[in-house]
Specification:
299 residues, alpha+beta, Muramoyl-pentapeptide Carboxypeptidase, domain 1, Alpha-Beta Plaits, 48% helix, PGBDSf, Peptidoglycan-bd-like, Peptidoglycan-binding protein
């Protein structure tokens, strides 16, 4: 009898365990799901902060609401065009924010009763009608200035083509910088592409232009860019090409701002005045590389 009672008790315990086991399993599954859910929720803020590949450029574009000396590119090009349209920019438009652009911006700010800083801040740009968010993404050359796009084709503006031709001349191509993307310019591009081991199509696309020294933003040939920082009409050191007025138009194909000047030894062509002698030397060396008889003169 006692044996039967023990057997019945064991049977009831087994049944209790068998009934309870599914409950344990169910509870365990719920616990796992809960833990996974909590973990996923904790990841949401971090996941939300992971930027897309476009965020960087968008943030830069949104926060870059001012232009200052040393900047270059399509934005500076548009600023100079607007200043020129109201008669405040009497020098060549080249997309480089140098001393002439600073002076023009200061004059505009003075006339419009703004803070006179020489920096084209958001208010200055707005009054000039320069909307940075609507400007095309272009490239810039450290010497010859900015272009309005990241490729140059026969349909591009004469200004862009002229800059391309000036750059091609630095590589030894005998081109006239006339702004016409004709057969001679196309052949020069094909020759450059073939020599540089690039796809050959006769079109100066982004890859070809960057290989030539163009870049986005203000990067480029640092020696030329840094030398430009001490450039000033009041500089005592002149990067000079020893040639007369008859050669001015030819020199201006490579240096649009070149002017004829005179000292006690005679006339020469100035491609820039600088406060720093070494900066003037950098430009003179660059002109020498193009085949000009160039040197540094001191007033």
């Amino acid at each position: 009898m006692l044996y039967l009672l023990e057997m019945m008790t064991l049977g009831q315990q087994a049944m209790s365990v068998s009934v309870f086991l599914p409950t344990i399993r169910h509870t365990a599954r719920l616990s796992v799901k809960l833990l996974v859910g909590v973990w996923l929720l904790s990841c949401v803020p971090a996941m939300a902060q992971i930027p897309t590949r476009f965020d960087g450029s968008v943030l830069i574009a949104q926060s870059r609401l001012r232009l200052r000396e040393g900047d270059r590119g399509p934005a500076v090009l548009e600023l100079q065009r607007q200043l020129d349209s109201i008669g405040l920019f009497p020098v060549a438009i080249n997309g480089v924010y140098g001393p002439a652009t600073t002076q023009a911006v200061r004059q505009f700010q003075r006339i419009r009763r703004l803070d006179v800083t020489g920096i084209a801040d958001a208010e200055t740009l707005d009054l000039l009608g320069v909307d940075l968010s609507r400007l095309p993404v272009g490239l810039s050359h450290p010497v010859h200035g900015a272009i309005s796009s990241d490729r140059i084709t026969p349909a591009s503006s004469r200004d862009d083509v002229r800059i391309l031709q000036r750059v091609l001349r630095t590589f030894g191509f005998n081109l006239e910088a006339d702004g016409v993307y004709g057969a001679q310019t196309e052949q020069a591009i094909r020759t450059y592409e073939r020599t540089a081991d690039l796809p050959v199509d006769g079109i100066a696309d982004r890859t070809t232009l960057i290989d030539m020294g163009f870049s986005a933003g203000t990067t480029g040939d640092s020696s030329i860019r840094d030398a430009d920082s001490s450039r000033s009409p009041r500089g005592r050191y002149v990067a000079a090409i020893i040639a007369g007025p008859s050669q001015l138009s030819k020199v201006q194909e490579d240096f649009p701002n070149a002017t004829v000047e005179r000292n006690n030894l005679g006339e020469y062509i100035s491609i820039g005045r600088f406060f720093d002698q070494s900066d003037a030397g950098t430009w003179a060396d660059f002109a020498s590389d193009l085949g000009y008889d160039a040197r540094v003169l001191r007033d």
